[in-house]
Amino acid sequence: MHKIKNLKIKKLFRIVDRVNSYSAKMASLSDEMLKKQTKVFKARLKNGENLDDLLPEAFSVVREADKRVLSMFPFDVQVLGGIVLHQGNIAEMKTGEGKTLTATMPVYLNALDGKGVILVTANSYLAERDAQEMGKVYRWLGLSISVGVDQKKEIKEKQKKTIYASDIVYTTSYALGFDYLIDNLSTFAEQKYMRAFNYVLIDEVDSVLLDSAQMPLVISGAPRVQSNLYQVSNNFILTLEKKVDFSLDDQEKNVWLTERGIDEAEHFFDIDNLFSEKYKELFKHIELALKAHQLFKINRDYVIEDQKVKLLDSVNGRIMEGTKLQSGLHQAIETKEHIEATPETRAMASITYQNLFRMFHKISGMTGTASTAKSGFLETYNMEVVSIPTNRPTIRKDLTDKIFVSLPEKISALIEQVKSLHEKGQPVLLVTESVSMSEIYSKILLEQGIAHNVLNAYNIPKEADIIAEAGQLGSFTVATSMAGRGTDIKLGPGVARLGGLAVIGSEHMKSNRIDEQLRGRAGRQGDPGLSQFYVSLEDNLLIKEGPDWIRKYFEKKSNKIDENEPKVLTRHKFTDLVKKIQKYKDEQSHDARIQSLEFDENLRIQREIVYKARNKIIFSKEILNQEIISLASKLFDIFLSNRKNLLFENLSRYILDNLNYDFKFDLPKNNDRKSIKKYLIKIVEDKIRDRQSILKNDQQLTNFEKISILKAIDSSWIEQVDNLQQIKLAVISRQYSQKNPLYEYQREASSSYGLMKKKIMLSGLKNFMLSDLVEGKNSEISIFFP
Fold first, then answer.
1. Lowest-pLDDT range, 107-111, 560-564, 698-702?
2. Torsion of CA 753, 754, 756, 757, to 10 degrees
3. pLDDT band at 1 (very low <50, low <70, confident <90, very high)
4. CATH architecture of residue range(s) 225-343
5. Which of 136, 500, 604, 647 is most solvent-facing, going by the fewest CB within 10 Å?
6. Quick one: pLDDT at residue 4?
7. What predicted TM-score, i.e. pTM, was given to this entire model?
8. Cα angle at 483 between 480 and 486, to 5 degrees?
9. Which CATH number fits domain 397-575: 3.40.50.300, 3.30.428.10, 3.10.180.10, 3.40.190.290?
């Protein structure tokens, strides 16, 4: 093992030494005695010790259990990683260093207090696989374990209660987020299945907390009125000419109509002013169609599978199942691709991964690449990144980039190299930036007579099998950057003497972290291997994100290219270019995550208030009569604060609309506020007595009162969540008119929240006062809300 220079690591190794000091004792125990340690630890916790006190012995127990159950004994560096994870930090462990086994130690320790541990994996396959394998150890030691995902069938709500009551839950960030949102849409206590969030350990933590942080999870429902403007707007966009009728910014992230484009729209739709209020919806749909055609590309941003548009993760190329673009953009892409548009729906609940995981009492994570994002983890999650030394020295050869002027030159040189590697039997992993490029390289290889596997978004079910074969003699794999994270590529017999796995990058990714993940596929556990990236000045990263001189240089040199003798560019201005662009992109991503967090802050505060209020009502065991009267009193004060509402017509209308359909117009003769309020309160009190006479017991009355208020909260909250989505979309475009979009959003979100509170109060009272209660068979009561 390496000599340890880092002071923090040295300090942590003292704890490793304490863990090691119990090894002989634990090894001497019988199976039964070793299993009994779990009860011993739980008793010690009840008697005042804490998890830190137990760590050395508990880690040693798990280590011995790993050896007996799995025939794997964690190395000292894995114990070190486990300590970092227990402390609520990030263990940066290189690919192949055994993160899955490392997790058994902090997971076991943190499950001992009975508050629950959730282990989040990169995908459903890994959640089920790791729960199956590592679950043997936890069960052997007397802990319960469940899996929160099922690739074959949908998990019922009744099952979820058992799942989340387990000591340890293996799941995915996607499933956890949606379970949290759905749990907070429950009406009754028995429907809720989630405990308070305690400790979470996130595998591939950079992918979850950084790469997925900008796209919120959204539960959709309540269909909108469907628009017929998608198709006609799509037809119009097809008539436009780039740079004449519309323009894109340099990075092709925003697109807008030019003055001529606006004239074309007004002529096409035979209207006088596209920006007038009556054509607001038309303008919105034109913008959506323009974005669908110019900003979203098939096999880069989405794929079409089973006649559905499915989004791709921009970092790892995986399909994001169940995720759709909001505010009509998904429907615009479906129209562009001639696929039947799915119903446009309202957002019912939403949360970002950032705010989901910040609710946990303690977060930790592990990954092979986190150092470059140290400041982001510390700033957003208060987690330090600790680089764990490898068990054996890394001997992989990371070769310098080969940079060419044109794409054909690059492809030609790359194919020559992989042919040479393949001819001697060395396994090759050729990584591409997109699904489209993986298919292009696949065709070229077939023309060259090279048999290979392709791993992209279209064949994820075969991922584990493809990755398992990738290190065998003569194997050739073409993959997007998804390349089987969580599954080690093990070298087959005879491969080591050939130089190990060769990872060839067909172009650099947007983030250096992703490049490092790809390099890390080779050279696991001291194996030999090599990595090299091929670059051309036509690559997306350089053309879209690079400085202007790149384009000028390319235009100057493109006429003098000799494809038979590709010339490698070696000057520093080229070799340093990718690092500079990646650094800039990482800074942009960091800023975007911070902006996403700032935008979500308003929603987070509102969401927590609403969910807390819902839970207070759901778990209340008392009759809410007094709360109903108190609610009515506040509403009447608001209503009567306007002098006009003391008039007979206004007051009568208010009572008919909100309190009593059978109002006899027998208002008090004194029309002062005090008398009228007293009269209105009596209407409410009379209704409460009426409800008590119909509902035979206190439980039925309590349930009815709860449902009345919860229905008001939910309908108003769903409208508010959807409204905030629309506001966010609208204010982001205001930055082009020199306005601060965050300030605009916060101002409108605050105003919208005030209106929502008033609506909840009025709807809650209305639900209670105006609902029809009908007694059916077996004395069952049916409720018909107004």
1. 560-564
2. 120
3. very low
4. Alpha-Beta Complex (3.90)
5. 647
6. 45
7. 0.84
8. 155
9. 3.40.50.300
All structural domains of the chain with their residue ranges: 7-215+354-387, 225-343, 397-575, 595-784
- State the Cα–Cα distance between residues 508 and 432, nearest whole angstrom: 9
Residue 687 CA to residue 767 CA, distance in Å, equals 12
What six digits make up the tokens of 284? 């919105």
Q: Residue 329: name the closest of 298, 297, 285 by CA.
A: 285
- 189 to each of 39, 452, 618, 670, how far by Cα in Å? 31, 54, 6, 46
The Cα–Cα gap between 636 and 673 comes to: 9
Closest of 126, 104, 106 to residue 171, by C-alpha: 126
Other beta carbons within 10 angstroms of residue 294's beta carbon come to 18
- E-strand ranges in 607-678 read none
- Summarised one tens digit per residue, pLDDT across range 230-251 is 999 999 999 999 989 998 876 6
Residue positions counted in the chain = 786
Phi, psi torsion values for 332, nearest 5 degrees: -65, -40
Name the residue among 376, 744, 372, 353 with its Cα closest to residue 591: 376
Contact between residue 427 and residue 528 where contact means Cβ atoms under 8 Å apart: no
Record the tokens describing residue 486, joined without a space. Answer: 């969580």
Whether the domain at 7-215+354-387 and the domain at 595-784 fall into the same CATH topology: no
Per residue in 206-235, pLDDT (tens digit) is: 888 887 777 778 777 656 666 788 999 999
DSSP 116-145: -EEEEESSHHHHHHHHHHHHHHHHHTT--E
Token pair in block for residue 713: 């909260």
In the chain, how many H helices and how many E strands?
A: 30, 22
Which CATH fold would you assign to the domain 7-215+354-387? Rossmann fold (3.40.50)
d(CA 331, CA 339): 9
Q: What residues have CB less than 8 Å from 515, skipping those under 6 apart?
A: 505, 508, 509, 533, 582
Q: Quick check: 481 and 315 in contact, CB under 8 A?
A: yes
Cα(121)–Cα(171) distance, rounded to whole angstroms? 6
| Predicted local confidence at residue 154, as pLDDT | 84
